[in-house]
Design goal:
Layout: H1 2-13, H2 56-76, H3 78-85, H4 90-106, H5 108-141, H6 150-181, H7 188-219, E1 221-222, E2 225-226, H8 228-248, H9 262-279, H10 301-316, H11 321-327, H12 333-338, H13 358-380, H14 387-415, E3 424-431, E4 437-443, E5 448-454, E6 459-466, E7 471-480, E8 483-492, E9 495-504, E10 507-514, E11 525-531, E12 537-542, E13 545-549, E14 554-555, E15 559-561, E16 564-566, E17 569-573, E18 576-580, E19 583-585, E20 590-598, E21 602-611, H15 622-645, H16 652-676, H17 681-704, H18 711-714, H19 723-738
Parallel strand pairs: 3-9, 11-20
Antiparallel strand pairs: 1-2, 3-6, 4-5, 4-7, 7-8, 9-10, 11-14, 11-15, 12-13, 12-17, 16-19, 17-18, 20-21
Helix pairs in contact: 1-6, 1-7, 1-15, 2-6, 2-7, 2-8, 3-4, 4-6, 4-16, 5-6, 5-8, 7-8, 7-13, 11-16, 11-17, 13-15, 14-15, 14-17
């Protein structure tokens, strides 16, 4: 989430009188530089405990905390909602997730234009926050199973996401700058500290919500399953609180009137230059030095010079979307990867969508580590770590993160059960008889396939068998004591089967079950029951899941269960209550539980694994999260600080819009790959890693040839440069000559 910090840094830099001394444009005095935005109207401001801090910023900080809690909390469970509630495929879930993320970074343009051109920041925040709240309400209703069918849920979900994207994106460029408006011009230090607190509020909201909302989803059961309505409803409630708190401070705020949008002016200038150039390409009008000079007929030369400086920085933005294509997959592909891992790390059991908490947590740790430790240490070693180099290293770190993710994915595949392929089946045998059973399996030509002796209440694990056709007959010959029984079964390719043997006074018998689960049960466990009692059994798995398992070897369907220990599962048969000890139902596993009546131990269970539990710990995602977060720190913060220092003060809002658009384009890249790529997941990770590595090389070449912007690139030396600037420039030239 460090892009948020970078955006707030931009908001600080939107006040030209407080430009960093390191900026080249600091040579220009505030009075003689570019036209300044008018100051907010003077009014008596209430302070915090007699300090220089206006009381109004408390409302803004609380508003930002609640809004970020709302956004990141909703987004944390979004992919699993698509996958398990709407029952979309992994590719579709990923695509819609990134389409939503992309829209969230396009809509800031709408918010900026509304605030600067018509409504002002305060009213823009209020109106779009209402849209934001409406989005959460509609999204929560779309997660209530009893409200309509699948189509209704899909429509409500998409409408809700659209309103949320419009709300969160629309207020994004307004809130931080509105906070800066509350300070008087001379309170530079206080404003700087406000933005530090503002950034902490952003990360605190994201950190807490990413941890809490997955617990609301999985820890609370409603409507017979995960409570997505609550997981979306609580973030919606926080957005209501954010709106109310912000509105309560209305009378305390200093409100700037709309002043016209520089983004629109720049866009019109560029568009006019292109059209004018195309219009006069065959005329006898002399060619001009720069293509933007074709806008001179309509726009002032000063604006054209500023846009020239801007386009030089924007050119460096061309490779940047590839970084965001990798960065934003933490909430989609990496979350899906976590569903196939074991969330038990000893001291805590992570839900798959909860592991995303590592990013904001590591951001808070890495920022001081880099600023106070790594960067100074590198400088002491005599290494000139320029902004371009930092950004390139950030890309390489993100590339390494996806290489690590690919390695983890390969290990997951190695430990996952093999799915039966063409002309393949898997057969498992369970012996529920009270003595040994010998099994001989023969094909349709009576050729022996294998023979096995199975002890009582033991099983033979799944064994792969090859078929000669898509379906084939087999003969199962059972030997028990002095009896022998033969049965014929037709087995179909790409399936798993379980053969259950049992005995009674009439001898040995068996039945064949086709297993409805052939692969890992993502993030959960699955359990089915076989009832060996002579009476029906009612089983209460939780308050929303009830099973009736028929008498005399009745079999239930698989039921998905949250991972956990189930030592006292309530059951009832013929008016008598008892409990079953199922033990641990672990991540990704599928179990068959046999209810048996032992003369010396009473009712008990025998549990076998049909699908083994996830073996790779979710802790193995820590390296990839650490690498991508380190890359984010070096890329995102450095990128904005560099590009803003290279642009005229009046163009910083344009750069903010352009930066957000690179994030949007990165999400579109993921959307395209998810819909068109036929690669397995680990290969897709390798593809993204390789692409970003190539892009980092291209970006390094572009940065090598990049010439930093100088004041004379913005101001013409004849009459545009203020007199004191000319003097400073001459002094610099004299000093340079002496050196």
């Amino acid at each position: 989430m460090s892009e948020e910090r970078a955006i707030e840094e931009l908001a600080m830099n939107n006040f030209p009188k407080n430009e960093s001394k390191e900026t080249l444009f600091a040579l220009v005095s505030p009075e003689e530089a570019l036209p300044q935005p008018s100051n907010p109207p003077k009014k008596t401001t209430r302070k915090i405990c007699g300090s220089n801090y206006p009381l109004s910023i408390v409302f803004i900080v609380v508003n930002e905390f609640c809004e970020r809690f709302s956004y990141y909390g909703m987004k944390a469970v979004l992919t699993l909602y698509f996958l398990y509630f709407l029952h979309w495929s992994e590719d579709t879930s990923t695509s819609v997730y990134h389409a939503f993320s992309s829209l969230c970074y396009f809509t800031p343009l709408i918010g900026a234009i509304m605030a600067d051109s018509w409504l002002g920041r305060f009213r823009t925040i209020i109106y779009l926050s209402l849209v934001y709240v409406l989005g959460h309400l509609v999204k929560s209703l779309g997660a209530v199973p009893v409200l309509g069918g699948h189509e209704m849920h899909t429509v409500l979900s998409m409408m809700g996401l659209f309103f949320i994207a419009l709300g969160t994106g629309g207020i994004k460029p307004c809130v931080a700058a509105f906070g800066g408006d509350q300070f008087e011009e001379e309170l530079v230090k206080e404003r700087s500290r406000f933005f530090s607190v503002f950034y902490l509020a952003i990360n605190a909201g994201g950190l807490i919500s990413t941890f809490v909302t997955p617990m609301l989803r999985g820890g609370v059961r409603c409507f017979g399953g995960d409570c997505y309505a609550l997981a979306f409803g609580i973030p919606g409630l926080l957005m209501v609180i954010a709106l109310v708190v912000f509105a309560l401070g209305s009378k305390m705020y200093r409100k700037s009137p709309p002043e016209g949008n520089i983004v629109v002016k720049v866009s019109k200038c560029i568009w006019f230059a292109i059209l004018n150039r195309l219009k006069n390409r065959s005329s006898e009008i002399p060619k001009r030095e720069h293509w933007l000079d074709w806008a001179e007929e309509k726009y002032p030369k000063q604006l054209i010079l500023e846009v020239k400086a801007l386009t030089r920085v924007l050119f460096l933005y061309i490779p940047l979307p590839m970084f965001w294509a990798l960065m934003d997959q933490q909430g989609s592909r990496w979350t899906l990867q976590a569903t196939k891992m074991n969330g038990n790390v000893g001291f805590f059991v992570f839900q798959p969508d909860q592991i995303q908490v590592l990013n904001p947590l590591l951001v808070l740790f890495f920022i001081p580590l880099f600023d106070l430790g790594i960067y100074p240490l590198v400088k002491m070693c005599g290494i000139n770590l320029t902004s371009i180099r930092k950004m390139a290293i950030g890309m390489i770190l993100a590339s390494l993160a996806f290489a690590a993710a690919a390695t983890v994915e390969i290990k997951i595949n190695e430990t996952s059960p093999h799915k039966p392929g063409s002309k393949e089946i898997y057969l498992k045998i369970l012996n529920l008889a009270d003595d040994e059973v010998k099994l001989a399996l023969m094909d349709y030509q009576n050729n022996p396939v294998f023979s096995e002796a199975i002890k009582p209440f033991q099983h033979m694990d799944h064994s792969k068998m090859l078929l000669t056709t898509e379906s084939q007959s087999f003969y199962f010959q059972l030997h028990f004591h002095n009896t022998s029984v033969t049965s014929e079964h037709i087995l179909e390719e790409k399936n798993r089967y379980s053969l259950v043997t049992h005995a009674d006074q009439r001898g040995i018998s068996s039945f064949l079950m086709k297993e409805t689960i052939t692969s890992k049960v993502s993030r959960m466990a699955a359990v089915r029951f076989i009832n060996t009692l002579g009476k029906d059994v009612n089983i209460t798995l939780n308050r929303d899941a009830f099973l009736i398992v028929g008498e005399n070897y009745g079999i239930s369907d698989y039921t998905a269960m949250e991972r956990g220990k189930y030592h006292h599962v309530p059951c009832r048969t013929q008016g008598k209550d008892f409990t079953l000890d199922l033990g641990l139902l672990d991540f990704g596993a599928a179990y068959t539980v046999v209810i048996i009546n032992s003369s010396d131990q009473g009712l008990r269970v025998w549990k076998t694994e049909d699908i083994p539990a996830n073996q790779i710990s979710i802790a193995w995602q820590l390296p990839q999260y650490a690498l991508v977060t380190a890359g984010e720190i070096m890329f995102s913060i450095t990128g904005l600080e560099f590009s803003y220092s290279q642009a005229p003060p009046s163009m910083k809002s344009v750069l903010q819009a352009a930066w957000l658009l690179t994030v949007a384009m990165g999400n579109i890249i993921v959307l395209i790959v998810a819909q068109t790529s036929a690669l397995v997941q680990w290969a897709e990770f390798v593809l993204f890693s390789g692409l970003l590595l190539i892009v980092s090389f291209i970006f390094s070449i572009m940065g090598y040839y990049y010439i930093p912007v100088k004041p004379e690139d913005i101001y013409s030396l004849e009459d545009k440069v203020p007199s004191h600037i000319k003097g400073n420039m001459k002094d610099l030239e004299i000093k340079k000559t002496k050196l």
